[in-house]
Amino acid sequence: MNPSQYFFLLFVGTFCAYGLWKSGSLSWQSSTVHAKASIQFDLSIPASSPSSHRFSNKTSKRTSNKNHRKYRGVVSKYMLELYHRRSDLDIVRALQPIHVSGPTDDGARILVFSVPPIDPDEALEVAELLGVVGSILRVRLDDASTSESCKSRRDDGWRAFNVTSAVAMRNSGIVRLRVYGKVGYHPCGDGPILLLSYSKVRKKRPRRSVQEEDLDEGDGPRKRRKNSCRRRSLYVDFALIAYDEWVVAPPGYEAYQCSGKCFYPFGDHLSPTKHAIVQTLVHGALQGVDSGSKPVGRACCVPTRLAPTSLLYLDASGTLTYQYGYEDMVVAECGCR
């Protein structure tokens, strides 16, 4: 082998050795990077850790609060005020106009409302077109037979125009009002609305044919047991039972519930019926006796008087309605029946 071939082979060998060393170095660095990445991943918070659960719960609560209200549309500011001041009006419905015409020759706009039929248990007291003070200047019935403007009243920052005659004497479910002023688009719930105020038709409750009387305990002495039947707390969250789809306010209320056992003799505050007294006596008499018949239970602790509460809600037609006395929502008294 001559010297030139020797130096050539030495150069090739050196170059290959350098290449092998360089690739090994890169491989080692790559392994180090993967190791570091692996360590960083392993030190992260596991998905099942308590901190992760707390974060998940907070997120779900925010999502729940965001989706708490499922109803759609702008809620009238006036109706919200009416609810919060607990007006004693029986029922108030707020109707949005189904059509607003362009300006007429005299500068008015025709507001068209679809009025629902009156419930047999309700009586229309007054109908008013309501708007923010300064937005509605004058209201006339869209009827050629009269040119008289409707009378108005001030209610804080609102002005209401009496249109009862137009609603009461309508031939169909449509009422048209000629309105002067700014009655355009109001996206914030302060646009013109037709307020319909109703009173409930009071019905006399039939008197019981048999008065409730206490029965004697019997011949033998009985051990007096304490009745635990009474009213207890029960807060109802409307979102929990999907009532927030139609109830605008409140978000929930104290409904109360009756619980406990009924023992003879009953206290006067439990207002037991004769049947409840007899059933409880039979229940006690059959204790420990194998009569071969079906067991007889004692009287139950149930609501004996219910009270109303105030609600702002959307009725079946989607009309925003305030009702001062939404019946049978709150347990007022408990008794044995």
Automatic annotation (TrEMBL):
Record InterPro entries: Cystine-knot_cytokine, TGF-b_C, TGF-beta-rel, TGFb_CS
Primary localization: secreted
UniProt-annotated stretches for the region Disordered: 47-67, 207-226
A GO cellular component annotation in the UniProt record: extracellular space
SUPFAM superfamilies: Cystine-knot cytokines
Any single Pfam family the record assigns to this protein: TGF_beta
Protein location: Secreted
Composition skew (Basic residues), residue ranges: 55-67
Domain annotation TGF-beta family profile: ranges: 205-337
UniProt keyword terms in alphabetical order: Disulfide bond, Glycoprotein, Growth factor, Secreted, Signal
GO molecular function: cytokine activity; growth factor activity
Transmembrane region(s): none
Family that this chain belongs to: Belongs to the TGF-beta family.
Protein name as it appears in the record: Bone morphogenetic protein 10
Origin species: Habropoda laboriosa
